[in-house]
Amino acid sequence: MIQGLAEEQRLPGAIVHGGLVWLVGGAADDASLDTGGQTADVLRQADAPLVQAGTDKRRLLSVTAVLADVRGAPAMNPSWNGWFDPATKPARMTIGAALVDPSWRVEVTGVAALDGRGARNA
Amino acid sequence: MIQGLAEEQRLPGAIVHGGLVWLVGGAADDASLDTGGQTADVLRQADAPLVQAGTDKRRLLSVTAVLADVRGAPAMNPSWNGWFDPATKPARMTIGAALVDPSWRVEVTGVAALDGRGARNA
Amino acid sequence: MIQGLAEEQRLPGAIVHGGLVWLVGGAADDASLDTGGQTADVLRQADAPLVQAGTDKRRLLSVTAVLADVRGAPAMNPSWNGWFDPATKPARMTIGAALVDPSWRVEVTGVAALDGRGARNA
């Protein structure tokens, strides 16, 4: 079973090692969007590295969302709730802090499990 | 031994998977408390998901503390030092950033190990 | 193979458990340095706990860099790129937030893999 775990891989957008997938901090491709739109954009972009690593959003374990203006948290939530299945939301912390590009409204990072050990039978 | 690891569980306050427990970012129930009081409140609340997952605060590996006002760091420390055993403090990073509810003085998240693999014989 | 993993150890600067090394949030010893200099100082200091744990910077999986002033991100990058091998950079999130000591320009934390399971054959 251990042998079945992916060896370390460096994918665009993620590092895979020992049954975990560490996402690179991601921001929206379209920075003209508002907080809700940028959130949807960022989450959508996370699908590719998760799938390439052999997992998906249902196996995200913990996510940190950093908002340029923390008052945008309510605007973030509909996009969040639309992307995640209610039964498989990760642990989350949301804070407000400065982001590298002033046009970014939100940056998201997180860690997911790979399929194959202790994973949900979904 | 691998078989003894908990399958993924979604507890109130934590996600358990593959030998690790990922805490949800937690804030004080009583937001009228000062920074020291909110810290004690948040840490006390973390006991329940840790115990429900089959571990406890001695197996916290890494914790992030986010203070609404970073100048509150000295006021946080007595509560921190009172909750942790000196021999089993986790790795910590403390920063100052905006929190979702303006009455929160501190939010804490972290990751703990489950008993059963590489755990301290305590 | 599992048996070969380090038991939990609490090193100065890191917690080791179950194949992962959790770095303590680190700041520069010489806080008179500018952002680039403090970044180089912090990263250099991370070598010791990584090596003591039995790994090295090539096995860092995920790193968070917190800048006191996020506009210092470009000044951080040459030190970053000088310390990491381009082939083995970790997932990174960079944000701007207040640090505990006002003379600190940057604080860095992260998680590395131990040699021995799923590790790069380098």
Separation, N- and C-terminal Cα atoms of chain A: 19 Å
Over the alpha carbons, how many angstroms does the gyration radius of chain A reach? 15 Å
Uncertain segments of chain A are: 1-6, 116-122
Main beta sheet of chain A: 7 strands, mixed
* CATH homology superfamily of chain A: RutC-like
Number of strands of chain A: 8
CATH topology of chain A: 60s Ribosomal Protein L30, Chain: A
Oligomer: homotrimer
- Derived structural class of chain A: alpha+beta
Quick one: CATH class of chain A?
Alpha Beta
Set out the fold topology:
The structure is a homotrimer of 122-residue chains.
Chain A (H helix, E strand, L loop, with lengths): L8 E3 L2 E4 L2 E4 L2 E2 L7 H19 L6 E8 L5 H11 L7 E6 L1 E2 L6 E8 L9
Parallel strand pairs in A: 5-6
Antiparallel strand pairs in A: 1-2, 2-3, 3-8, 4-8, 5-8
Question: How does this model look, in words?
Answer:
- Three copies of one chain form a homotrimer.
- The first copy, chain A, has 122 residues and is of the alpha+beta class.
- The first copy, chain A, has one domain: RutC-like (60s Ribosomal Protein L30, Chain: A), CATH 3.30.1330.40.
- The first copy, chain A, contains two helices and eight strands, in the order ββββαβαβββ.
- In chain A, strands 1, 2, 3, 4, 5, 6 and 8 form a seven-stranded mixed sheet that branches.
- The two termini of chain A are 19 Å apart.
- The interface between A and B is medium-sized, with 30 and 26 residues.
Short description:
Chain A is α+β, with helices and mostly antiparallel strands. Chain A has helices at residues 35-53, 73-83; strands spanning 9-11, 14-17, 20-23, 26-27, 60-67, 91-96, 98-99, 106-113.
